[in-house]
Structure formats: C-alpha cells, structure tokens
C-alpha cells in the first residue's frame, strides 16, 4: 500500500520535505529536526549506489574475515552490474522480486546492489529457517502445567536459546537471559556511528547477519559511506577476536550476547582490542552493568539505539547526550509520541506508555497484509510499536517493556483496533447467536418422535430423487420403508442404544436405514467405504455395531472383516441381488411380510435425549480417526437452528430443491440429508461426482440450491462444460468442509446467471453441523458467516487462553447445545478438546470483525484437506517410518487448485539402500484409504528440516522470480521452491557454488562467461520521477512474538532517509 510522505500531526498541521524547519505543534510530540538529504539529485537508490561505487573506486569495501579475500568498490560495481545483467536478461524489471538466501559473504552486496540498479525488490531469506526444532513451546508449557499451580505456569511462553548464560558458579544470569529474549522478540535496537575520524580509517566488523534488517541496512550504510567492513559469516570465539586484532577494527555492531562475551570471557584478554573505539549495541536493551564492564575492559564508547524493521533503521540513538539506560533521542526527520494504550491519550515526560513514531523512514506497509498494516499504522500515519517507554525532560527515551496486551498471532498484529478491544470485558468479547424460536427438545421426547411426525406431515411431497436412476421417493414411502425396517430391528433384538453401521455410497436405502434406527432409538455409525482394512477394523472395534449395512461395492470386504468381531451379528447388502453367498439382501427384508406392522402400532423409542444418535468418525492430527458421539439433543438443537435460519431467509411457500453430492458417511452430508427430510425439502441424490451428470441434474430437476465443497466450486468457476447447461434455476450455493477463496466465490457468482448468494459455513463433526453460517440476507466475501442461533463463540490466544476482541485472530472456541458429548472410548481426547467450562476448542484460527462476521485464517492442527477430506500427516508419517528403507519422513499439503491440498512426502532413505518414489507410494496405498494417498508425490532429501514452512511462507509472501542462494541453503530452497510457482530459477553464488548439491543449478561464475548478459548502463536507471516513493527496495521479514513473519516493504526513500541519518 502507498503511504504519503506528507503526514498529518495530531494537531491537524502537516509536515513534509518542503516544511522541514517547523517545530512540533505540541510539546508532548517530539521532533528530531529536518531530514538530511542524501539523494544528490539522483532519481533512485540504484543510481546513488552506482555513483558512490564509482567515487570510492579503488578503496577496499569488504574483506572476508575467514578467507582474507578483499573486494574493492570497483570490483563491487563490476560484479553487481553483472548480476543486474543476469536479472535483466531473465526478464526482471522494476517492481519484480528476487530472493537472497545467504550467510554474510562477498557476493551478498553484489546481488543486492545489482537489484538496486534495476529497481528490483530484494527479499532476504533467513538462513536459519532450516534449523531443526525437536521440542515445541507447547510441549514445554503443557509439561510445566502438569507440575505447577496456575499462578506458576508459563503464561509468558517459552523461547529457545542455544545456551543459558551462567556465572562460573552455575548461577543463571537472568539479566543477560532477558537480553536474549528481547533479541528474539524483535530486532528493534539499532544505532549509527558518531566517532569523529576519517572514513577511510574506519574499519567495521560485520557479524550481524545481513539477512536481518539490522545487518542488511548497516551493510548498505557502511558501503555507501566509503567505510571498510570485515565480514564474518558466523560467530566463533577465536575468529571473532583475531579479526578485531588483525584488521584493527575501529567500530562494531553487536548484540547483547556478544557484549556479555566481551564483558566476561577470559579469551578476550589474550587479544589486542586497543583499536576499537566504539560499539553500537542493537537488537535488545543492554544492561548498565554489561555496558560498563565492556567499556572499562576494552576502553570503548558503547552506544544504544532503538529501531525496528518497520522504521528502516534507528529511530532513536544516543548522540550528544548519553544517559545510562537511555536509547537516545529522535533521529532527524522523525516524530515521536507516547500514548496511553487504553485511551490513546497523549502523555508527557516521564509517563510510560506505548511508543509511536511517524516520519519518512516508516515502512510502506506489510506486503499482502493490509489488515496488519492498518492495525500498525493509524490513519494519521503514526506507527504503533507495541513497546512501552517514556521520554524525559531532555527528550531522551527509555524502554520499559513490551505492551503485554498487544497480541500477535501468526504475523497478525492488533494495535488501534486491539487497544479499543481491551476496553471490552471478557463477557463482551464472547459472541452469542441469540435465542432461537424453535426448540424441538421441548416439543418431543426423542429424535424418532420428531422424525415420525415430520414424515407424516410431508408424506405427499417428493423427498428424494435418485439423480442416477431418476427414481423419485415420496416422504410417505420413506416413512413406510423406515417403519418396516424398524420392525425388523425389533424382532432381531436391536434396541435403543445399540449401534448399526452403514458402509455405502449415497443411495436410496441409506435414509431408510438411518430413519429406521432413529425410530427405535438405535445409534448409527457410518463407515467410509474408501477405508482400508486397517481403518475399517479400527472404526468397527471403536463403535461395535451389531448390524452393518453395505453396498455391493464393499460387502465382500465387510464380510471378511466381520469374522474378526464376534459382536457383529449380521451383514446386510443393499440392493436386490446378492453378490456373496448366504448374505441377507435389503430388498428381501422389505418384502418380508413379518415386518409389515400397521402404522398405528408404532411406538416411539424411550425418551432419552442424551442417547447417542450418531457416532461419526473425525480425523485427528495424530493418526486413526476418533468416534464423535452426537446425541439426539445435539441433532434436535441443530434442526431447530436450521428451521429458524430457513425462516429468516426464505418465504414459507418457497420451494427448495437441493442437489446433494456430499457423501452421507460424512457429517456434512448426513446432517444435510436429515435436515432436508425434517424440513420437507426435495433432495436430489448423487452417489459420486461426474461432470455431465452433476450439471444435467441441476438442469433436469431445476435445482434451486446445492451443497458444495471448494473443489466443486472451482469446477463451477472454471470448467468449460458449465456453459453448456442451463443452470438458471440455481438461486444459492452452500459451501463447506474447507475455506473457499474470495476469488473462486466471485468467479462462480459472475458465471451463474440467477445466483443470488454463495453461503459459506464452518463446522466440524464435533459441532454436529455448522456453528457459523451466512444465515442472514447479508453476506461478506471470504466470511464463513455469523454465529449460529443459540451458540456462543470466543476467540482465544492459543498460548495464554486470553479472550481476544474483534479483528484479533486466535483459536475459535464454541459452546452450545449442538456440541458433541465426547469421543467414544477416549476420555483423554475429550478432556483435551472440551474444557471444564464446556468450551469446545476447534484447533482452527479465525477472527470476527465489527459486524460479528467470522473469517477463518489458519489451522492450529496440521491436517491436510484433500477435496474436503481430512488427512492427518502424522498418520502417513508413522506409516512411512515403518518402511524398512526409510530413515525419516515428513508429510505436508501441496497446494492444488482443484483438490485444495495433495499429501506430499519428504523422505530420507536409510544408508546404502535404494527405494523408488513409486515403491513408497504403492506401500502407502496399500495401507490407507484412497484420499490419503501420496498424490503430491515423494521427494528424497538428505535431512528433514523441521521448519521448511517458514521458508515457504516467505516465498509465498514475496513471490520472487529468482533466488540467489549459497551452498549451505541450496537443499532446503530446492525443496520448497517446487511449491512456489513464481520462482523461475535458483542461481548458486559463492565459492562453493560448484558443490555437489548445486550441480543441477546455474552458477554465477558460469553466467559470467555467457556473452548474452550485457546491457547498456542506462538500463540500470529508473526512468520516472517519484520512484523514491513508489519503488520498493526491500521486503524484510519482521517476526511478531508468535508465528510466521510479516513482510515489511521499504521504499527507496525509506532507505535513503535512513542512510542520510547514518551519514
């Protein structure tokens, strides 16, 4: 997003580059003075870089502290021009993005400056994203929670460090540990040099990683100022100290852990540190004790500052006045204020509050995240830092703490909206759907009683149309068949509470069986006919059905499985022709006159609304599915809500004809079947999706509505067949089971002529049906709707349990009469999911806006959604690990436009063995159901990186076309880029670019020899005025306190202003 350089102050006055001499209009708004100007009349950052490299031509700009290799400005210019030529030849132009994944090395600024010449944006990738993580924060918190009282639990979270700082006696140095924590929370405390000495005599030690904002921007600043930098790719004690001694380092950028090393390590005394004159410490506050210890030991000036990626570099810096504990005063061109975080009231000197800053160094915004940008930069241009501090009478700032109430989750930050929500009580933040008018639990004693009444009430209507055969069934026939089958159950000893299994595709006999069970109070469990023998055995053992009904597709497998379980009394085949000897056929039961009792002899089942009506299988993240117990009360409550919703949306006499292709063994499909029957609605049934059959059923039967899942919506949006059928009867589409993108939703709306609305919803097996739906006339693209009638929802921080307000993403939790009883035979899982107050924790991340519309953001669970089916990665990983030729494995979801996600396996082979992709795919196919198979493929790697997802997140966010990468990161980058379509090429850089893992990549040295990479120098320059604001120089990653980082967009002007301040 574009942020204007001219910005309003709180008094309504404005400041700009043309109005730099003004003072602050309010004594409590501090101003750092006018902007310096570094542009020298140039139109772009690239032109300035080119000019400076030419000016300092024969000076040394970089020295590799490991190899001693030197790089002069002339060589830097030449190499960076060649990189620009490569990018230009590959079609990169102004506004395109490249990735740069490398440790500190000589090629890093060459790639960087080459991109500047073209106006190409650079997105540095954190090299450490590939580090293994074997212990999670959640595991530590849960471990301590079991052993400590609530007051002593880890409410502040867990941060992982390489080493706990201790003194020689073993006592933990908690102040230094605090510095480590602050460094991990955010790179905020930055500085610049103020030593009065010739630049040519200054030698900087560059050990801060250049893929961080702190390191990258100081690299640019030193290079463009004619200052020599000695680079180190990582910290090693002897190398660090010997570089200071050998290269006579005069200044250093350091972080608090390195300051602790300089203050306390005995090795420091063995090296000559006398040339060091100044240390600028950043990334976290530095204690007074450590500052004084380093200053006294080495005899240097130590300065602190404050900044963050969002403000390009330092906003505060110790300059002329140096007070212990202070992070300095405002830099030129920047404004600062301190506000009360609750009221937004402006505070004066020595009054702690949230620090806010405004000026030309403030970022343009977060890429692809307008909401986070609006939450961080308010309408007056003030950037809300989320840090607590104050200024004294001399304008010196002091940092006190983080704003604890500032919640950041997965890169989302809430400031202006979040602070407003802090005024709300927890009760105000709980969203309630309102009281319903239809409560079936007060009208009937059982689900069977309501069903019998409604079947009688609608008996002359068409209830179900078999879309495959054209057969039409009235509600009268459904009732008669269900009563007949109920009598069969009674005479064969099936009673209330017993379990009946169904394993079948959608077909006419399916509802007869369900409704017969309800009429006697029996429990139905559905078995996915795609299950493998392993999964089927698990489901049957868990639910223990006495009778199982199955279609011709699965009856032989059912008969084989039944021999293992003595509690199974009968297998009954749907249809009229047995395909297995001596098996009971469904049509024979319907023809048997022994079960044809007069309707008036029907007796309603015993009244027990807490009785299980359904046991539905719900996939967890850890393997085999759990059995969700849905009671008669759950279903009656859901049906009441459905009636009230229909009354809100439709006229009483409006005819609804609904096409149902969702499998009835899935809770979504089954509950829509039951709800339609109770409501007297005509349902068109299809056993499977076939393109022409699906479309012809809409046309032939004049379907007004259809239950859909996202892959079907993609078909409706894009397939050319859709235009060949008359779909004008369709009025609304309901989409569930997985989030639907706004783009697909809009495409379907535009394509189908009379479509009035696409209604999304959100629900799980554990909530019986949807707990969120667009049940009112108003809809919002991308929203899954509002809270269901009679239901409460709260959004909580998943780490602390704190209730969040509007526009604050967190875990969705629900409470209401439709929440399941629990998981059958798994009390531990029930307790983990439903807390002591009755709140069901979904594991899904979302938020609600000011209108109480909900939006789904992400899943805390690691489930893969394949065509709306849930695939637990852990189950597939466990099976892969059971293969004798596999040493390690990980499974993720590969994005797919049609299916949503495809299971993709990363595999590490055992040493000295050979195994093929097909062998592994066949192995898994023999152990899991069809939709869990490895359709995304198998990829072999040397090691499973435990957070490849962070690399993928950054690439998805920045969409680079080319990535320049060093050998140490090639393997991880190669794996991830297969899932990022924007990337055209990976180019290996550095001295190890010819290593084994780079053999299939082009290297920079090879490209240098290619004569086609040559262009006119004028092509490097950006042609138009105003590019300083419009051109993006960097997208730097800024991590919140939890979750994946946000991409901070910094323009040429942001960089130039920061560099001017540095000079």
Automatic annotation (TrEMBL):
InterPro entries associated with the record: AMP-bd_C (IPR025110), AMP-bd_C_sf (IPR045851), AMP-binding_CS (IPR020845), AMP-dep_synth/lig_dom (IPR000873), ANL_N_sf (IPR042099)
Domain of life from the UniProt record: Eukaryota
Domain AMP-dependent synthetase/ligase: 52-131, 200-366, 454-823, 949-1061
Keyword Transferase applies: no
Record localization: Peroxisome
Catalytic activity: firefly D-luciferin + ATP + O2 = firefly oxyluciferin + hnu + AMP + CO2 + diphosphate
Protein name: Luciferin 4-monooxygenase
Natural source organism: Phlebotomus papatasi
Lineage summary: Eukaryota, Metazoa, Ecdysozoa, Arthropoda, Hexapoda
């Amino acid at each position: 997003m574009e942020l204007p350089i001219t910005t309003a102050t709180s008094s309504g006055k404005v400041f700009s580059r043309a109005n730099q001499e003004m003072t602050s209009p309010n004594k409590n708004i501090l101003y750092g003075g006018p902007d310096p100007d570094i542009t020298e009349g140039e139109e772009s950052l690239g032109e300035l870089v080119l000019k400076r490299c030419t000016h300092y031509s024969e000076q040394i700009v970089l020295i590799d502290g490991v190899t001693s290799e030197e790089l002069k400005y002339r060589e830097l210019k030449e190499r960076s021009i060649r990189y620009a030529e490569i990018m230009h030849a590959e079609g990169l132009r102004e506004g395109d993005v490249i990735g740069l994944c490398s440790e500190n090395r000589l090629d890093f600024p060459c790639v960087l400056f080459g991109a500047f010449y073209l106006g190409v944006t650079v997105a540095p990738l954190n090299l450490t994203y590939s580090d293994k993580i074997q212990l999670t924060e959640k595991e530590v918190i849960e471990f301590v929670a079991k052993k400590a009282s609530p007051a002593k639990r880890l409410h502040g979270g867990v941060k992982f460090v390489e080493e706990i700082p201790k003194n020689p006696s073993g006592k933990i140095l908690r102040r230094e540990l605090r510095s480590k924590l602050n460094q991990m929370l955010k790179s905020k405390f930055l500085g610049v040099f103020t030593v009065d000495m010739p630049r040519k005599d200054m030698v900087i030690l560059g050990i801060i990683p250049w893929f961080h904002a702190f390191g990258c921007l100081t690299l640019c600043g030193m290079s463009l100022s004619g200052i020599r930098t000695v680079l180190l790719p990582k910290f090693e004690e002897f190398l660090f100290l010997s570089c200071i001694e050998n290269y006579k380092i005069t200044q250093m950028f350091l972080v608090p852990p390195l300051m602790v090393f300089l203050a306390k390590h005995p090795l420091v005394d063995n090296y000559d540190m006398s040339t060091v004159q100044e240390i600028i410490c950043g990334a976290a506050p530095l204690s007074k004790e450590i500052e004084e210890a380093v200053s006294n030991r080495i005899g240097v000036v130590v300065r602190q500052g404050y900044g963050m990626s969002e403000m390009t570099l330092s906003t505060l810096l110790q300059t002329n006045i140096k007070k212990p504990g202070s992070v300095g005063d405002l830099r030129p061109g920047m404004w600062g204020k301190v506000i009360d975080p609750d009221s937004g009231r402006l505070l004066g000197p020595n009054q702690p509050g949230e620090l806010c800053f405004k000026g030309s160094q403030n970022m343009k915004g977060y890429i692809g995240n307008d909401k986070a940008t609006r939450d961080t930069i308010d309408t007056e241009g003030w950037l809300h830092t989320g840090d607590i501090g104050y200024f004294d009478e001399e304008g010196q700032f002091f940092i006190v703490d983080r704003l604890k109430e500032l919640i950041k989750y997965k890169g989302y930050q809430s400031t202006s909206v979040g602070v407003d929500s802090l005024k709300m009580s927890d009760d105000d933040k709980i969203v309630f759907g309102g009281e319903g008018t239809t409560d079936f639990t007060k009208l009937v004693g059982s689900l069977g009683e309501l069903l019998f009444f409604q079947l009688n009430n609608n008996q002359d209507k068409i209830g179900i149309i078999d879309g495959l055969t054209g057969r039409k069934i009235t509600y009268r026939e459904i009732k008669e068949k269900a009563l007949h089958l109920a009598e069969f159950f009674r005479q064969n000893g099936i009673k209330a509470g017993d379990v009946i299994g169904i394993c079948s595709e959608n077909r006419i006999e399916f509802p007869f069986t369900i409704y017969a069970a309800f009429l006697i109070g029996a429990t139905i469990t559905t078995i996915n006919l795609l299950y493998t023998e392993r999964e089927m055995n698990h489901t049957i053992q868990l639910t223990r059905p006495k009778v199982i009904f199955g279609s011709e597709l699965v009856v032989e497998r059912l008969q084989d499985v039944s021999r293992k379980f003595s509690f199974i009394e009968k297998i009954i085949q749907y249809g009229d022709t047995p395909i297995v000897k001596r098996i009971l056929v469904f049509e024979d039961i319907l023809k048997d006159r022994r079960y044809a009792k007069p309707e008036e002899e029907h007796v309603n089942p015993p009244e027990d609304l807490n009785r299980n009506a359904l046991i539905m299988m719900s996939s967890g993240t850890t393997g085999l599915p759990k059995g969700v117990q849905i009671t008669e009360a759950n279903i009656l409550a859901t049906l009441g809500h459905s009636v009230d919703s229909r009354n809100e949306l439709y006229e009483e006499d409006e005819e609804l004809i609904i096409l149902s292709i969702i499998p009835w063994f899935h809770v979504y499909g089954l509950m829509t079947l039951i709800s339609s029957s109770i409501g007297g609605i005509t349902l068109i049934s299809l056993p499977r999706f076939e393109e022409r059959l699906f479309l012809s059923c809409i046309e032939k039967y004049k379907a007004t509505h259809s239950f859909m899942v996202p892959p079907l919506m993609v078909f409706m949006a894009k397939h050319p067949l859709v235009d060949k059928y008359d779909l004008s009867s369709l009025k609304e589409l309901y989409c569930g089971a997985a989030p639907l993108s706004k783009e697909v939703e809009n495409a379907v709306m535009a394509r189908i002529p009379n479509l009035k609305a696409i209604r999304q919803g959100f629900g799980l097996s554990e909530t019986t049906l949807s707990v969120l739906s667009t049940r009112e006339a108003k809809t919002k693209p991308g929203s899954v709707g509002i809270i269901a009638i009679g239901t409460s929802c709260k959004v909580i921080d998943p780490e602390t349990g704190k209730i969040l307000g509007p526009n604050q993403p967190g875990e969705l939790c629900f409470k209401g009469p439709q929440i399941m009883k629990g998981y059958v035979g798994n009390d531990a899982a029930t307790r983990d999911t439903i807390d002591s107050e009755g709140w069901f924790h979904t594991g899904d991340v979302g938020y609600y806006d000011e209108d109480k519309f909900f939006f789904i953001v992400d899943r805390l669970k690691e489930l893969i959604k394949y065509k709306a089916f849930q695939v637990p990665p852990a189950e597939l990983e466990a099976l892969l690990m059971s293969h004798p030729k596999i040493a390690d494995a990980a499974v993720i979801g590969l994005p797919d436009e049609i299916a949503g996600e495809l299971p993709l396996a990363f595999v590490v082979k055992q040493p000295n063995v050979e195994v093929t992709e097909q062998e592994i795919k066949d192995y898994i196919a023999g152990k899991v159901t069809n939709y869990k198979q490895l359709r995304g493929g198998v990829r072999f790697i040397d090691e499973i990186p435990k957070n490849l997802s962070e690399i993928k997140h950054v690439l998805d966010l920045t969409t680079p076309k080319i990535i320049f990468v060093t050998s140490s990161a090639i393997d991880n980058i190669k794996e991830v880029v297969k899932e990022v379509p924007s990337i055209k090429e990976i180019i290996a850089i550095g001295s190890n670019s010819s290593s084994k893992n780079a053999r299939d990549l082009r290297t920079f040295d090879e490209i240098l020899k290619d004569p086609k990479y040559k262009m006119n120098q004028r092509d490097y320059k950006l042609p138009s005025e105003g590019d300083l604001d419009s051109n993006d120089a960097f997208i730097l990653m800024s991590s919140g306190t939890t979750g994946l980082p946000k991409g901070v967009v910094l323009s040429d002007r942001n960089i130039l202003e920061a560099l001017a301040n540095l000079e």
